[in-house]
Amino acid sequence: MRPLNLCINIFSGFIYEQQITMLLLRRTAQAGKHGRSFSASQTLLSERKGLVLGVFEKEGEEGGLHLTEAAARFDQTLSGKLSELLKISGPTLKQGKSRIFYGIHKDFPCVAVVGLGKTTAGVCGSENWDTSKENVRQAMSAGCQLLQDLEVKHVEVDGCGDAQSAAEGAGLGLFQYDQLKSKKKNKVTTQLHGSADSADWQKGVTYAEGQNLARMLMEAPANHITPTAFANTIEEKLAPHAERVTIHKRSQAWIEQQQMGAFLSVSRGSEEPPVFLELHYNGSPDSKQAPLLLVGKGITFDSGGISLKPSPSMDAMRADMGGAATVCASIVTAAALKLPVNIIGLAPLCENMPSGKATKPGDVVVAKNGKTIQVDNTDAEGRLVLADALCYGHTFNPRAIVNVATLTGAIDVALGSAATGVFTNSDWLWEQLQKASVMTGDRVWRMPLFQHYTRQVTDCQLADLNNVGKYSRSGGACTAAAFLREFVTAPHWAHLDIAGVMSNKDEVPYLRKGMSGRPTRTLVEFAAGLVHKG
Fold first, then answer.
1. In this prediction, what percent of the chain has a pLDDT beyond 70?
2. Long-range contacts of 134-138 (CB under 8 A, 24+ apart)
3. Mean pLDDT for the chain?
4. Ranges for the Cytosol aminopeptidase domain (predicted)?
5. Going by C-beta distance under 8 Å and a sequence separation of 6 or more, which residues neighbour residue 288?
6. For 374-430, how does the pLDDT look when each residue is reduced to its tens digit (9 = 90+)?
7. Helix-then-strand count for the chain, H and E
8. Would you call 249 a catalytic residue per the annotation?
C-alpha cells in the first residue's frame, strides 16, 4: 500500500513500516492544510523535474546528518519531512551514497539526496587534492545520473557551499557520447537550486563544457575527426569569441615551407593531409604581454605506422590526439571565461599510417631546428610532431611553454590513471601546475628529467638523436621527455604525458566510461592562475 502515491526507494538498511505509516498519516493532514497535492498523475508523469541535495555526516555523532543550507531550506518548506525520512529510511548516508524520495514536494516529483562526507574535509596533502571539492563533484554527479536514468528532464542542483564544483560534477557526470547512436541517452538540463553563487555555478558549467568538448573530440571515430575536421570543429567552437581569437589552419605547403621534417615524416603515410592548427587568444588588455604557449600532440589516428601496433584496442588510438583536444578545449574555455591572459595554442594534426610512402624504421629525418633524428620506431611518432611544434613555438617568446601528449604507455605503467606525469625544467612552473591540479582534482605528479635519460637518446648510430631510448622500454616516459627537451631552450617548459589518464573505466566517479578529456580543467585553472603572476 502506498498512500498518496508516495514511493520511497531505499538502497540500504531496513524499512520501518509502522514509522513510515505514521509519518504518512501525519502528512495527509498537513498536505490538506497547506494545499499541496502529491498526486503522481499530476507531477511524476508530466513535469519530470528533479532535485539533487547534499547531506554531510555530522562530526562526533554516530549516525548523525547535517543538511546543506539548500537542503535545510527545502526541509523547512516540508515541515521537517525530509529529515524524518532520512532518519527512518536506513543507515546514515555515507560519502557518495544516495537515496531517492518520490512525491514529497509538488514541484519536484523526484528528490535525490547524496552523502557529501565529513564537513571538515579539505585539502589533503597525501592525496594532493581538495577532498571537499571532490566529494561535491562526486555527489552531484551521482545524483544527476540517478535522475537521468529515471528520465527526468530538468534537474536543480544543490550548490553544497561550492557551486563551481557542484556544476562541474553535474556537467561531467551527465555527459555521454551518443551522437552516432539511434537510441540516445535522456538529455537533462541543470540549474543551480536557489540564486546564491550563480557566478560560481556558471564558471563550473563552463569548466565542465570545456572538458566535455575534449571528451567529444577524443571519443569520436577517426573517420569523423580527421585533421581537417578537428581544425574546423575548433574554429566553430571559437566563432563566438572572434573578437579575441585569431585562427590559422596551416596547410601542408606551409608545413613544408617551415621545414618541419619531423612532423612531415609522420604524416606522409596517410592519405589525409596534415594541418598545423595555430590559435591566438588575446585576452589580456596589455597586447604586449608575453603569451602562455600550449602545444598539443594531434595524432587523429595512430596505427603505429610501419611499426604497426597490435590490433586489440587499436581503436582507442582515435584518442591519440588527446593532447591537442585538451589544449584546444582549454583555449575555448579560457575565451568563454574571458580570462585576461594571452594564450597561443599549437596543434600539429595528422594520422600515423602505414603505406608505401610511410617512414621506415631506421630512416633519418631533419627537424625544424636542424637536428637529425633516427626513427627506429615509427610508433614513437608523437615526439616527432611535438619537436617541430616546440621549435616553432619559441618564435613567440612565450612566458611559459606547456606541451600535452598521450605520449607513452610507460607513464601508464608508472602512474596509472591517478595523475598526469609532468616533466619540467622549472620549479616555478611545476608549482603553478600542481596548485591548479589540487583545485580541480585532476592531479599531476612530477617525474625526473635526469641527464641519465638524455644520454639514452643522444647516443645514436646515424643521427643526432634517436626517437627511442637505447635501452628500449626502460624509463620510456623519461626518455621521451628527454627527447623533447632537446628542442626546448625556454627556461619555463613542462611536458605533460597524459597517456595514463586518456580514458576512464570507473576510476573517476564523476566521469562515465570512455575518453576522459583530462586534464582540460587543470590547464584552464593553471592559465587563470597566471593572471596575477608576473
1. 90
2. 134/165, 134/441, 135/95, 135/96, 136/54, 136/160, 136/161, 136/162, 136/165, 136/166, 136/169, 137/165, 137/166, 137/168, 137/169, 137/172, 137/441, 137/510, 138/95, 138/96, 138/169, 138/509, 138/510
3. 91
4. 377-384
5. none
6. 999 999 999 999 999 999 999 999 999 999 999 999 999 999 999 999 999 999 999
7. 16, 23
8. no
Rounded to whole angstroms, what are the CA distances from 422 to 115, 294, 449, 497? 33, 14, 10, 7
What's the pLDDT score for residue 196?
A: 77
Give the other-Cβ count within 10 Å of 506's Cβ: 8
Taking the CB of residue 113, how many other CB atoms lie within 10 A of it?
Answer: 27
Bridge partners, residue 78, by sequence = none
pLDDT score for 473: 78
Render pLDDT for 358-378 as a digit per residue (tens, 0 to 9): 999 999 999 999 999 999 999
Q: How many CA atoms lie within 13 A of 387 on its CB side?
A: 33
Please give the single-letter amino acid code of residue 522: T
Q: How far apart are CA 368 and CA 256, in angstroms?
A: 10
- The H-or-E segment that residue 476 falls in is helix 476-485
Distances (CA, A) of 173 to 176, 234, 397, 481, 497: 8, 23, 39, 33, 24
User: 96 in helix, strand or coil?
Assistant: coil
Instruction: Please answer whether residues 6 and 38 qualify as being in contact, where contact means their C-beta atoms are separated by less than 8 angstroms.
Output: yes
CB 157 within 8 A of CB 140: yes
> Residue 6 burial (CB < 10 Å; 0-12/13-18/19+)?
middle
Q: Distance between CA atoms of 522 and 267, rounded to whole angstroms?
A: 30
How far is it, in rounded angstroms, from Cα 205 to Cα 350?
31
C-alpha cell at 221: 571515430
Residue carrying C-alpha cell 529529515? 83
Bridge-based pairing state of the strands 400-405 and 363-366: unpaired
At 26, give phi and psi (nearest 5°).
-65, -40
Amino acid at 49: K
Phi and psi (nearest 5°) for 195?
Answer: -95, -15
From 97, 118, 153, 309, active-site residue:
309
Residue count of the chain: 534
Which are the contacts of 250, defined by CB distance < 8 A and separation ≥ 6? 275, 276, 277, 278
Q: Is 309 noted as a catalytic residue in this protein?
A: yes
pTM: 0.91
Q: Residue 243 class from Cβ within 10 Å (0-12 exposed, 13-18 middle, 19+ buried)?
A: exposed
Q: What is the pLDDT of residues 327-337, one digit of tens each?
A: 999 999 999 99
Question: 206: which 3 cell numbers?
Answer: 563552463
Say yes or no to pLDDT of 26 above 50: no
Q: State the catalytic residue, choosing from 137, 250, 383, 518.
A: 383
